[in-house]
Design goal:
This protein is mainly α. Helices cover about 85% and strands about 0% of the residues. It has 5 helices and no strands. The longest helix has about 30 residues. The protein is elongated and about 65 Å long.
């Protein structure tokens, strides 16, 4: 049993990562996201069955069951709000770092902090646009 656990966990992680990468492409949050996740897991199950990967199939079936049980519009929206809030905290931290660099008067650090701030602000705008 101990030997099966890493394989099952790996399969579930692979399935999760593949669906996360699909969602990272700035998709609007809808119940279709849940359906897209289900479809991706089902495709992975079919591929694993075709290759005779029984352990992977079991792990993916658990992932599918968890998706069907837990994926909802409300949960997706709550997760999105958490990501936006986390990104807002990152922007605020970058702003503090920039203010500190300006206070110290180090031009090289100021330019670096401005660049990082712009990156974080761009990511925040992207997250807000997907809602």
């Amino acid at each position: 049993m101990r030997h099966l656990l890493p394989s099952v966990l790996a399969a579930a992680i692979v399935a999760t990562l593949s669906t996360i990468s699909m969602n990272a492409a700035a998709q609007p949050i809808t119940s279709e996201s849940c359906n897209a996740k289900r479809e991706a897991i089902e495709r992975d199950i079919d591929a694993a069955k075709a290759k005779g990967q029984a352990q992977r199939v079991r792990g993916l079936e658990r992932a599918l069951s968890a998706n069907q049980r837990n994926c909802s519009q409300e949960r997706l929206q709550a997760e999105h709000r958490k990501r936006v809030q986390a990104q807002e905290r990152k922007v605020a931290e970058r702003q503090r770092e920039l203010a500190e660099a300006k206070h110290k008067g180090r031009a090289d650090k100021i330019a670096q902090r401005e660049s990082k701030l712009r990156e974080e602000e761009t990511e925040l705008e992207r997250l807000k646009a997907t809602h």
